[in-house]
Amino acid sequence: MKRLGRVKENECMSCISCIVECSMAFYKEINEFKSCIQIVEKKGQPVPSTCVQCGKCAKACTHEAITQNAKGIWMVNKKLCVQCGDCVKACPLHLMVMVEGQAPTKCIVCGKCVKACPMDCLEIVESE
Questions:
Q1: Secondary structure E strands in 1-128
Q2: Residue 1 or residue 58, greater confidence
Q3: What burial class does residue 44 get, using C-beta atoms within 10 Å of its C-beta: 0-12 exposed, 13-18 middle, 19+ buried?
């Protein structure tokens, strides 16, 4: 299963390059509230918070609009989504984005945030 991982989380300088890249990828605008990656503070240090592909969003979706692809990534099917927001509420890390009138978005492990990070704090990892 692929997911985003943190490499050098102690080196994150909270520049928000990853957040900007994610919001641009999904919404074509710079908006920290429209990013599926966030910077949180842990023990006084900024740390990237990323989707761990846990599937809790899919379990909360009663319309089966979130399914796992062959790489283990949970994907939102916009055609099946009724925009109820249950998946967004179920995300334990609060990393799903819901914009009125649109299907929610979540990390699809595209790697754009990884490339945008000037400190190389993020990576795409293969896990079981």
A1: 2-6, 38-42, 45-49, 66-68, 74-76, 122-126
A2: 58
A3: exposed
8's tokens: 């050098």
Radius of gyration of the chain (CA): 14
Q: Which amino acid is present at 115?
A: K
Q: How many of the other CB atoms lie within 10 Å of CB of 111?
A: 15
What tokens appear for 84 in the block?
A: 């109820």
pLDDT digits (tens, 9 = 90+) for 11-70: 899 999 999 999 999 999 999 999 999 999 999 999 999 999 999 999 999 999 999 999
- Cα 111 to Cα 30, 36, 62, 99, 101, distances in angstroms: 17, 12, 29, 22, 26
Q: Strand 2-6 vs strand 38-42: parallel, antiparallel, or unpaired?
A: unpaired
Determine the distance from the C-alpha atom of residue 34 to the mean position of all C-alpha atoms in its chain, rounded to a whole number: 10
**Rounded-to-integer distance, Cα 103 and Cα 111, Å:** 21
Q: What is the distance, to the nearest Å, from the Cα of residue 4 to the centroid of all Cα atoms in its chain?
A: 9
